[in-house]
Amino acid sequence: MPIDTHLTPTRKLTLAILTLIALIIVGTIGLTTLERMNPLDALYMTVITLSTVGFGEITPLHPTGRLFVIVLIVFGVMGATYGASALGQVILEGELRRIMGRRKMDKRIKHLSGHHIIAGFGRVGRQVADEYVREKIPFVVIENDNSAINSLDTAGHLYIAGPATEDEVLLAAGLDRAKVLVSTLPSEADNVYLALTARHINAKMRIITRADQPDGEKKLRRAGANVVVSPHVLGGTRMAMASLRPNVVDFMQMATLGDAGLGIEEISIPENCRFGGKSLIDSGLKAEFGVTVIGIKKPNQPIQINPNPNAVIENGDILVLVGEGNKLRELASHLN
Description:
six-stranded parallel beta sheet, alpha/beta, Helix Hairpins, four-stranded antiparallel beta sheet, Alpha-Beta Plaits, 3 domains
């Protein structure tokens, strides 16, 4: 039986199984008709014939029956060969695809620099990944759970399989070249250890980590975390705000999630920027781009919330702005 190269290995295997079933049905009907066997004996005779186990004939066969069995054996051997070839191809190609896919992914990760790393792909880690995808931020996930790894494969995210607390795994994810580490591991002890290790490997990177207990923030900051976030505290605060100030929460959601085209962005003022040396009111940010500056972060100073219109924009400042998403992107493109 020639192998049709136009069929995929999976379809070939399916065809082989269907052929085997058809041979069993034809053999059972043929022996029932030609040799007057009862259906169970005919089925048994067909199966031992196709499997070539050599148990012998149940009852002596007539010449016509023997010719029929010979034809059945020939087609059975051909079908078995075809099925074995298809099964081997499925296994081989699947393994090769997995190996080649892994090598391709490792090569892409090695070329990354200034990327973000997410340690843990649980509920919190998935939300972070979704936001990075939306913002087109290059990132690598570190995960050790098989079900989560399957989800990463399905989503097409770059990932390294292994414990995030091991140096080899962190280096494979490019921690020494990364810009940001977001640790969402469920164990606070693991988060502390990861923060310590990451800070030792990359002293300049920004480390954002998760804390489930109130007293965990101090430990994590001492370990080297720049920002410590408690999902439970944030969730409880937001629920309280939703009950007390629902319109404020709606606005915050629109701004943070980009609903209705509204967004919040932070933009760094580079050298020789045309806005440098100008006050907010003279910069034309509001008139030209329709964005509002709600904060200014100057180097080594606390952020100024709701700055005075006469506040001067200087090189190196970080502006926090609210406005339509397309306007924010247009402004960012003028600065790059």
